[in-house]
């Protein structure tokens, strides 16, 4: 199930900086990564029972695993990009860093001014698990936080979790920073069972609960600096929220 009209767009109006999330770009990432297909336990029986001409050969990654961490651009109609080259005006420069998102501070009891969750695509893998890509966003008085999550569970075989978190504080100075953390986790049911964890698929319905059981296979942190007053940051087709200053923002959720 592809929700092609769903998207989340965050736009910094003064600089034209635009970060957005959509199913099409995520599936382009899936196509480019081209992981080998995951074989479910029943596949061997299907092959044995089927006649050669009736066999269905899966030669692609039917789990739709994607390395996608968002789409981005700088729109040329903003004053900020006047005089820049064509190449520099269409992409953002993320720098590797050692800074970390303060998840403890985010867990504090701060008022949530706006929250939404958007499904980009979902598959039940022919009743053999789940493949799900979602993006969640919330706005607080201090800033905004976003979680892009790909969650895969192939029952009895494999679990895969790919999270991308973005956080920005409303500071209102000449320079503001967005932190982006990507963390990929993965484990087979067999590996988890060998560590004493349950092998029952029902125990793994919530990725947030079992994420710490999955070993990290890739992790990186990056930051994006905006060299203009951070005001009017986000626009999402329908103006849902309006805050003062860069602190002035609007969110656009397309359903």
Layout of helices and strands, plus pairs?
Blueprint: E1 7-12, E2 17-22, H1 23-33, H2 43-49, E3 71-74, E4 95-96, H3 103-106, E5 114-123, E6 129-140, E7 143-154, E8 158-169, E9 176-188, H4 189-194, H5 207-210, E10 216-226, E11 252-254
Antiparallel strand pairs: 1-2, 1-11, 2-3, 4-10, 5-6, 6-7, 7-8, 8-9, 9-10
Family: Belongs to the TIP41 family.
Organism: Solanum bulbocastanum
GO biological process, one term: TOR signaling
3D structure, described in words:
- With 255 residues, the protein is mainly beta.
- It has one domain.
- The chain is built from 5 helices and 11 strands; from the N terminus they run ββααββαβββββααββ.
- It has helices at 23-33, 43-49, 103-106, 189-194, 207-210; strands at 7-12, 17-22, 71-74, 95-96, 114-123, 129-140, 143-154, 158-169, 176-188, 216-226, 252-254.
- The strands form 2 sheets. Strands 4-10-9-8-7-6-5 form a 7-stranded antiparallel beta sheet. It has a 4-stranded antiparallel beta sheet with strand order 3-2-1-11.
- The model is unreliable at 80-89 and 235-255 (pLDDT under 50).
């Amino acid at each position: 199930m592809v929700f092609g009209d769903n998207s989340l767009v965050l736009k910094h109006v003064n600089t034209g900086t635009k970060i957005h999330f959509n199913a099409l770009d995520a599936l382009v990432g899936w196509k480019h990564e081209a992981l080998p297909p995951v074989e479910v336990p029943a596949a061997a029986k299907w092959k044995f029972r089927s006649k050669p001409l009736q066999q269905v050969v899966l030669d692609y990654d039917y789990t739709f695993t994607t390395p996608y961490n968002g789409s981005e651009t700088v729109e040329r109609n903003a004053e900020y990009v006047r005089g820049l080259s064509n190449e520099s005006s269409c992409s953002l420069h993320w720098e590797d860093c050692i800074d970390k998102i303060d998840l403890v501070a985010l867990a504090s009891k701060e008022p949530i001014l706006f929250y939404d969750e958007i499904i980009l695509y979902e598959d039940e893998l022919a009743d053999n698990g789940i493949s799900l890509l979602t993006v969640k966003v919330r706005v607080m008085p201090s800033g905004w936080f976003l979680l892009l999550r790909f969650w895969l569970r192939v029952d009895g075989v494999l679990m895969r979790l790919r999270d991308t978190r973005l956080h920005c504080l409303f500071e209102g100075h000449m320079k503001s920073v967005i932190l982006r953390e990507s963390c990929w986790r993965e484990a087979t049911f067999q590996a988890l069972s060998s560590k004493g964890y349950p092998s029952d698929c029902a125990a793994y319905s919530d990725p947030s609960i079992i994420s710490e059981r999955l070993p990290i296979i890739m992790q990186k942190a990056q930051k994006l600096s905006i060299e203009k007053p951070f005001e009017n940051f986000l626009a999402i087709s329908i103006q849902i929220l309006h805050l003062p200053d860069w602190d002035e923002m609007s969110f656009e959720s397309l359903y």
